[in-house]
Amino acid sequence: MSATNNRCLLYNQAVMPYLDAWTWQQELQAQRIKNPSLDDALILLEHFPVYTLGRGATKEFLNFDIDENTYELHRIERGGEVTYHCPGQLVGYPILNLQRHRQDLHWYLRQLEEVLIRVLAIYKLQGERIPSLTGVWLEGRKVGAIGIKVTRWITMHGFSLNVCPDMKGFERIVPCGISDKPVASLTEWIPGITCKQVRIHVANCFAQVFNLELIEQPPYNLDQS
Q1: Residues with Cβ < 8 Å from 56, sequence gap 6 or more?
Q2: What is the per-residue pLDDT for 219?
Q3: Hey, CA dihedral for 23, 95, 195, 54, is it positive or negative?
Q4: Could you identify which of 34, 108, 148, 177 might form a hypothetical disulfide with 81, taking C-beta atoms 3.0 to 4.6 angstroms apart as the criterion?
Q5: pTM
Q6: How many CA atoms within 13 Å lie on the side-chain side of 222?
Q7: In whole numbers, what is the pLDDT of the chain averaged over residues?
Q8: Which of 8, 86, 176, 195 is catalytic?
Q9: What is the distance between the alpha carbons of residues 22 and 156, in angstroms, rounded to a whole number?
């Protein structure tokens, strides 16, 4: 079970290229594998348009020719099928030592869902889980996606919440390989909502769910890595 008031470094970043954030996560995870006493961390950011494929993902869920390289696409270590990131979608990358919390990956996935469900509840929206699937839905449409990678109980990758993205990018894929449940964004329920408004709620709900004390950090300079 989680201890009380574990520290968590909070990095609120602007829009960042996917490869830069990926490298940063790998560095943070590697540091904590080497030294498990380091504080947990949470990165909140947005990405420039990019598609990512989980380690076992298949190309059948892409509605474009992968060899044309028209769109930025990367195969990464997380579980799950293809997903899409772009500005207007808030992405969270927790780098947690689950030995301080619970060494149970199913529990961890449900906790990440709980974070997003609590955020939606702040806006009087009823986030839902669907048995056997991972993520968060509103009225049958997926607004929150989750994909993780855990090494020696240190996490990376994480969750995304569609706040106000351009949804056209999702038309080029079968998001998360689920063809019968469409994706949506919070703007359909809350016109004018922005990622800037949602960030504080995501951070606070994350701290509540994982029983963490957030320690705000200055913006990360990629040149320092």
Answers
A1: 79
A2: 84
A3: positive
A4: 177
A5: 0.92
A6: 14
A7: 91
A8: 176
A9: 9
Who has greater pLDDT, 219 or 177? 219
> Annotation-wise, does 80 bind a ligand?
yes
Q: Is 176 a catalytic residue?
A: yes
Pairing of strands 73-75, 50-53: parallel
Rounded Cα distance, 202 and 163, in Å: 12
- Find out whether 159 is annotated in a ligand binding site: yes
8-state DSSP, 168: G
Span 95-134, pLDDT tens digits:
999 999 999 999 999 999 999 999 999 999 999 999 989 9
The neighbouring-strand residues paired with 161 are 90, 144
Q: Tell me, what's the pLDDT at 2?
A: 42
- Residue 187 assigned as binding residue: no
Tell me: is residue 51 an annotated ligand-binding position: no
106 is in an annotated binding site: no
CA dist 181 and 119 (Å) reads: 21
Structure tokens at 6: 């574990």
Q: Are 210 and 155 in contact (CB under 8 A)?
A: no
Q: pLDDT digits over 124-146, tens only?
A: 999 999 998 999 999 999 999 99
